[in-house]
UniProtKB/TrEMBL annotation:
Keyword Iron: no
Species of origin: Hymenobacter actinosclerus
Keywords, ordered alphabetically: Membrane, Transmembrane, Transmembrane helix
Name by which UniProt lists this protein: DUF2723 domain-containing protein
Pfam families attached to this UniProt entry: TMEM260-like (PF11028)
TM region(s), chain numbering: 7-27, 53-70, 77-102, 122-142, 154-172, 184-215, 222-245, 265-284, 296-317, 484-501, 508-526, 538-561, 573-592
Length: 997
């Protein structure tokens, strides 16, 4: 018979193997949306991603990417596999954590001690293995953890770091009496140091580790000893978060500035002096530990050193940045910019313990910390970070309702009865904390994992019963993400929790601390606003990890409940293990269809299609995240259209990014920007206010840019603070066009030559011009039509600056041309972008890829479905344009293609589909048009009926979308003369629209 140790290892690796197979089978083969494209690109070439970076992840990702052996199409799946294997090892460590804790309970030896020599009976061993397998597999197939396992993000590896340090601490606890046991503590410190280069969530496990140490080293723990342990552990977390991570580089930066500016030494000598002093202090600390024969001090010094060794992965950031790679966010090439990068200063701050409430008005702006840049042989202050001052009566303790953003104010009101211009009460403040931040943004996510999830729409709630969707909107009822666990994981976990508390209170307290700090403590620290761009459940994987321990121990609780019924230990262990395995069994069967991404190519195809929309050597303005990161992946990894320069609009508000845009990148020449760094450095021309000058009815763009570069007094205004700033005197801009040269260049299609204008005229419609807008104006003035300039069609229309009359729709992007679109309606925004039918037909029908969009077995969540909706809009625009030209044959081909590559059964009809109805009727597809109208009207009716009585405030976007759909159907039905369907749609629209007035 195998020993307990060998069985523990064998079963653990079998659980690992099962999790690995599942994660690899459901792995996404390309770069997912959000940060994944950026992380894959930065791993492949060791580039510099957004702050604070993840150098440990990038280094390991680079190693995995090398296994592609030159096949760049395999890079993404290999880096994704890094997350899959990180998740598998997390499951393995969790299994061993549960079995270590379960062994104490089964052998009736609670607390902290060495139980390695105790050999359980076969029945006891089977029960312990069953507990480990049930708990580990339940976590493996939990919603948030499984999601993290399928993509190249840091959260899977972060979970691995957490699991590893908890497992190592329990290994130490079994060996604490050995003379060399402190080596386990040093190893834990190294893992914590490495984890800093992945994500900081791992640090929140330190308080739980502190109590394991305290309970193991103290014969008679006391309440005040526990309080001291918690305080010391919290201080350690704070020292790492503030003292080591940004603190040491900040101190090095202070040395650098002092010794360069004051002493007059060359650059970098301040850092060298700091390192010499720092190394000397470390040597002194070790010398003291040896001289005094102080084991604790020596262990602390070793742990500190190994945290630094792990943290040293961050050296890759300034090293790689100094080589000016193509992705180099924030340009952290020296110690001063590196500190700003680590502190995530570009994202701003949220009040935590004390600060302004949402109606607070600043009474002053003071100069905060300086930002230094090199100039000549000194460091000079580029700007002082502004610090807003508020009246004491406008501040409050624990400010949760703090953002004055109108969208945030609107969403605050969904949770608490706050009013604009009225200071929230502490009751309202705490109500928002408990209802939204803790209730909606933590407990809802927690219940998704262990109770059930209503669907994939943002704000989706908890599914307590079965997955039956009677009466629900089809989009919710038929969603593969509608998962019913019947609360079985929760029930089993609660049984394990109560059993653990009753039988081993100290270890239960440790697990509870892990749950608290990786869950509710994060909620308190993040202080989330009332609306997020997407669901944030991935943040709380540590809390679901802790609860999974109790799910495993719940098997022991079941065994105790059945003790009087089933006497034999082995039989009872087998029965409760099989019963317990029902829990992960339900979770994997319910979750498979919405976590299986094995055939999903949408994000990368959308990136390639957008790049292929552009003419050679183009400039493409995009939004951030989902609009940009897949483009970076396509260019950096697969080498797709590197002649196109992607310019991220939000980044164009920063000097470091503009500097990068003025350098060559692969096949793309530098952007045609005339401004020098002095004209756009941070703190200069960040925004230009509108200061009307009646004598200037319109502004010549070229002359305006010359005045900006000259810092002309003609543009300067003062607002009483003693500082002058540049402004713009009119919202009307114009750009003279050399029509003969433009016509000769051939950039305007022959059939549009009559639309060529001698002067482009537009209204920016803004009260202030941001730096990014100034850059776009500069490019228009400087480029002289030598390079094609595009906006992605997904860019916010407010960033178009009123240039829409001069847009030409080419695939998924709008090209700016000096030809005015006669069909554009400036009042309604209809017909945005002239449709050049030949070019559009080539792109949509022959060039673009739509892999998997016709497959109904592939799950596309809410975020993924936004991109096919854009495709449908472009198909519709092309079909309408062809019909206007009298080309019914090709219009019908376009319509057939649209529904062939994106059928309703795979990509449900969206709000763009009613646009197809008149065109379908025009080409003889009346039956399809009727089916669309009937299907979408019925869906809208069902959805509106549900949301009007269920959580309407949370799902107002869906409610408004249904109303817009009915409006589109009604208008389309009237256009084709179908009064019956038009009346039905309008009647429903009026029924649900009026009550919301």
């Amino acid at each position: 018979m195998r020993s307990y140790k060998s069985l523990n290892n064998l079963v653990g690796w079998l659980v690992f193997a099962l999790a690995t197979v599942v994660f690899l089978m459901t792995l996404e083969p390309t770069a997912s949306f959000w940060d994944c494209g950026e992380f894959i690109a930065c791993s492949y070439k060791l580039l510099v991603p957004h702050p604070p970076g993840a150098p440990t992840f990038l280094l390991l990702g680079r190693l995995f990417s090398m296994l592609s052996f030159g096949d760049v199409t395999k890079v993404s799946v290999l880096v994704n596999a890094l997350s899959a294997l990180s998740s598998s090892f997390t499951v393995l460590f969790l299994f061993w954590i549960i079995t270590m804790l379960a062994k104490k309970l089964v052998l009736h030896r609670p607390g902290m001690h060495d139980d390695r020599q105790l050999e359980p009976t076969f029945g006891q061993t089977l029960l312990i293995m069953g507990a480990g397998a049930v708990g580990a597999l339940a976590y493996a197939f939990s919603d948030s953890f499984w999601f993290n396992a399928e993509e190249a993000e840091v959260y899977a590896m972060s979970s691995l770091c957490t699991a590893a340090v908890v497992w190592l601490m329990l290994k130490w606890e079994n060996r604490a009496d050995e003379s060399d046991s402190d080596r386990w503590l040093v190893l834990i410190a190294y893992v914590i140091g490495l984890s800093i280069g992945v994500h900081l969530l791992n640090l929140l496990a330190i308080p739980a580790l502190g109590f394991i140490y305290y309970y193991r080293r103290t014969q008679n723990p006391t309440l005040w000893g526990g309080v001291a342990t918690l305080a010391i552990s919290s201080v350690i977390v704070g020292l790492i978060l503030a003292g080591i991570i940004p603190g040491l580089p900040t101190l090095a930066g202070a040395f650098e500035v002092f010794f360069v500016n004051t002493v007059g030494l060359p650059f970098n000598w301040g850092i060298i002096i700091f390192l010499l002093i720092f190394v000397g202090l470390i040597w002194f600390g070790f010398r003291q530990s040896f001289q005094r024969r102080n084991r604790l001090l020596n262990t602390v010094m070793l742990s500190f050193m190994f945290i630094l060794i792990g943290y040293s992965s961050y050296l890759i950031v300034p090293i790689r940045s100094s080589y000016h790679p193509t992705i180099n966010e924030n340009n952290p090439e020296d110690v001063l910019s590196f500190v700003s990068y680590l502190k995530r200063e570009q994202y701003g701050d949220r009040p935590l313990l004390y600060g302004p409430q949402l109606n607070a008005q600043p009474i002053a702006q003071t100069e905060g910390a300086p930002r230094y840049v090199r100039q000549g042989d000194k460091y000079v202050v580029a700007e002082y970070r502004p610090v807003l001052e508020y009246r004491p009566e406008d501040k409050m303790l624990i400010p949760r309702i703090y953002s004055p953003d109108p969208l945030h104010v609107y969403n605050y009101q969904k949770w608490v009865d706050v009013q604009k211009d009225v200071k929230p009460t502490m009751g309202q403040n705490l109500a928002f904390l408990f209802r939204y931040q803790m209730g909606h943004m933590f407990w809802r996510y927690f219940m998704w994992n262990y109770v059930g999830r209503e669907g994939d729409l943002q704000q989706s709630g908890i599914l307590w019963g079965s997955a039956d969707g009677n009466g629900l909107p089809e989009r919710v009822a038929d969603s593969p993400a509608r998962n019913a666990f019947f609360a079985l994981p929760l029930i089993l976990g609660l049984l394990g929790l109560f059993f653990h508390i009753r039988r081993d209170g100290r270890n239960a307290f440790v697990v509870g601390l892990l749950f608290l700090f990786t869950g509710l403590a994060i909620v308190f620290y993040l202080n989330q606003p009332p609306i997020e761009p997407r669901e944030r459940d991935y943040t709380f994987a540590g809390a679901t990890f802790a609860f999974a321990i109790w799910i495993g121990l719940g098997v022991l609780a079941l065994a105790e409940l059945l003790q009087s019924v089933i006497k034999a230990d082995t039989t009872r262990a087998g029965v409760v293990t099989l019963v317990g395995l029902v829990v992960p069994g339900i979770m994997v069967t319910q979750g498979w269809d919405d976590h299986d991404r094995s055939d999903r190519y949408l994000s990368v195809d959308s990136a390639k299609n957008l790049l292929n929309s552009c003419a050679p050597n183009a400039i493409l303005f995009t939004n951030g995240d989902n609009d940009t990161f897949p483009l970076w992946y396509a260019q950096e990894v697969e080498g797709i259209r590197t002649d196109v320069r992607v310019a991220v609009l939000s980044y164009l508000n920063t000097d470091w990014y503009i500097d990068q845009m003025k350098r060559r990148s692969y096949k793309s020449a530098p952007l045609p920007i005339s401004m020098e760094n002095k004209d756009y450095k941070q703190g200069t021309n960040d925004y230009l206010p509108y200061a009307e000058n009646p004598a200037v009815p319109a502004v010549d763009v070229r002359q305006f840019m010359q005045l900006v570069e000259a810092n002309s007094p003609l543009l300067q205004v003062s607002y009483g603070d003693g500082k002058n700033m540049l402004s713009f005197p009119s919202r009307n801009f114009y750009l003279p066009i050399d029509t003969a040269a433009v016509a000769k260049s051939g950039i305007v299609p022959a059939d549009r030559r009559k639309q060529l204008v001698p002067q482009m005229e537009w209204n920016v419609g803004k009260s202030a011009i941001e730096k990014k807008t100034l850059l776009i104006l500069d490019i228009l003035a400087t480029n002289n039509w030598e390079r094609p300039v595009y906006f992605s069609s997904t860019v916010d229309s407010r960033d178009f600056m009123g240039l829409q009359p001069y847009f030409q729709l080419e695939g998924m992007a709008y090209r700016i041309l000096p030809a005015r679109n006669p069909d554009y309606d400036e009042k309604t925004g209809a017909n945005e972008g002239f449709v050049e039918t030949g070019l559009m037909y080539e792109k949509l029908m022959k060039t673009f890829a739509y892999r998997g969009l016709d497959n109904p077995t592939i799950f596309y969540d809410e975020n993924n479905l936004r991109f096919p909706a854009n495709y449908r809009d472009k198909f519709s625009r092309l079909a309408d344009a062809l019909l206007m030209q009298g080309d019914k044959a090709r219009a019908k081909q376009v319509l057939n293609k649209a529904f062939e590559v994106m059928p309703d059964k795979a990509i449900p009809y969206d709000y763009y589909v009613p646009q197809f109805i008149p065109a379908l009727v025009a080409v003889g597809e009346q039956q399809r048009a009727n089916e669309i109208m009937d299907t979408m009207t019925s869906r809208a009716e069902r959805g509106l009926a549900y949301y009007s009585t269920h959580n309407q405030a949370l799902f107002d976007q869906e409610f408004q979308t249904y109303l817009a759909t009915l409006n589109g159907i009604g208008r389309a039905a009237e256009e084709i003369g179908d009064r019956k369907r038009a009346e039905r749609a309008i009647r429903l629209l009026q029924q649900y629209y009026n009550p919301r007035q």
